[in-house]
């Protein structure tokens, strides 16, 4: 009886002590791979890495743990380093949240072993000098969010993101990505897809027509052709940014839904007139149509009071409130017969 108890005790407690010690060794290895930066000076043999209150300070790196003392979250930020990605991170097999922010001196590729961490929920690696391809995550059933913004990543967007069943937010803005946008990247309701400020080309895949985006931001690329299918009376997308591309379509018959809160179509080649639904879309507060090829009289009434002249500036020949009245144009537009005159 007591021998069995002792054996059970030995088994359970040595294994949890062991696994805790394992992660301590891994953390010390990560510190060494980073060149022992000052920001990690309290990472020393025997340190209580699970004690959040001892480790958390604003702007510093921190760790949180599972009940068994394994590393659950690791945030490495604002480290003054010059080093490749510390691939010992891939030995933290229980890690759910992996965050590296503002570690400008990190260079070289992101190792593909991070895609094999089985418990990942969230990967945020931003504002570093890491380069090479975007890792192809594909076997991470719990992954909800990936943010690799403002690094030096190049190559194409892996279509394998489309195999992640829970992925709700994908942000790859501010890199050097090329090629086209793969179809079907996100499957959850109200997802967020931010691919802004890369060198993406081609058309926006038509399948995004039926996605209820909380945010779609593909601004600052070289995308072309028609993207009007994103808009429509029945659509539930909330924020759409297509600014600074080569989109070219007729806005005259586009309908804006009441769900739409903001859109930025500035700096494209959009032509035609501003449709009446622009003034009646109930939820619309932050549109931007500037720097396009729109022409004609703006719709009147409705919510037009919400919008400044900047929203419509630098088009081919728009007129009417809040821009100067159309009668200032020479030659004046042909008078329209209407009983209310
Ligand atoms: C955590 O660290 C704080 C500050 O160093 C200390 O006061 C506290 O006793 C530690 N908690 C545990 C559970 O070790
Ligand atoms: C893209 O770049 C523009 C111009 O620098 C900037 O205003 C915008 O915030 C960037 N977008 C994202 C999502 O970072
Ligand atoms: C619309 O976009 C233009 C060009 O990017 C910018 O200068 C302007 O401030 C924006 N206006 C509004 C109201 O957002
Ligand atoms: C935009 O329009 C304003 C007002 O008409 C004008 O002063 C400005 O030069 C235009 N900017 C560009 C870049 O065309």
Automatic annotation (TrEMBL):
InterPro entries xrefs: Leu-rich_rpt (IPR001611), LRR_dom_sf (IPR032675), PGIP (IPR051848)
Keyword Protein biosynthesis carried by entry: no
Keywords: Signal
Family matches, as Gene3D superfamilies: Ribonuclease Inhibitor
Intracellular or extracellular location(s): Cell envelope
Database matches in Pfam families: LRR_8
Signal peptide feature range: 1-19
The protein's name: Leucine-rich repeat-containing N-terminal plant-type domain-containing protein
UniProt source species: Rhynchospora breviuscula
């Amino acid at each position: 009886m007591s021998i069995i108890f002792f054996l059970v005790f030995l088994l359970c407690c040595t294994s949890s002590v062991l696994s805790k010690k394992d992660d301590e060794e891994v953390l010390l290895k990560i510190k060494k791979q980073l060149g022992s930066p000052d920001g990690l000076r309290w990472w020393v043999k025997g340190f209580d890495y699970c004690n959040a209150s001892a480790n958390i300070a604003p702007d510093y790196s921190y760790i949180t743990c599972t009940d068994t003392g394994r590393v659950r979250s690791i945030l490495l930020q604002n480290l003054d380093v010059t080093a490749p990605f510390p691939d010992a991170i891939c030995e933290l097999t229980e890690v759910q949240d992996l965050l590296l922010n503002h570690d400008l001196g990190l260079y070289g590729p992101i190792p593909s072993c991070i895609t094999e961490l089985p418990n990942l929920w969230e990967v945020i690696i931003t504002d570093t000098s890491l380069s090479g391809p975007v890792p192809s995550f594909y076997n991470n059933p719990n992954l909800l969010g990936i943010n690799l913004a403002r690094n030096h990543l190049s190559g194409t967007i892996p279509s394998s993101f489309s195999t992640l069943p829970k992925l709700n937010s994908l942000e790859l803005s501010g890199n050097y990505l090329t090629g086209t946008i793969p179809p079907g990247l996100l499957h959850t309701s109200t997802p967020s897809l931010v691919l802004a400020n890369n060198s993406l080309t081609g058309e926006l895949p038509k399948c995004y027509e039926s996605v209820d985006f909380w945010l779609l931001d593909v601004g600052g690329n070289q995308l072309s052709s028609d993207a009007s299918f994103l808009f429509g009376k029945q659509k539930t997308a909330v924020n759409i940014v297509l600014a600074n591309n080569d989109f070219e379509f007729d806005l005259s018959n586009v309908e804006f839904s009441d769900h739409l809160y903001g859109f930025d179509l500035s700096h494209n080649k959009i032509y035609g007139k501003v449709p009446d639904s622009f003034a009646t879309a109930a939820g619309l507060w932050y549109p931007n149509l500037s720097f396009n090829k729109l022409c004609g009289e703006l719709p009147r009434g409705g919510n037009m009071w919400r919008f400044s002249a900047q929203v419509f500036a630098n088009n081919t020949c728009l007129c009417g409130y809040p821009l100067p009245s159309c009668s200032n144009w020479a030659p004046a537009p042909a008078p329209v017969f209407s009983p209310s005159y």
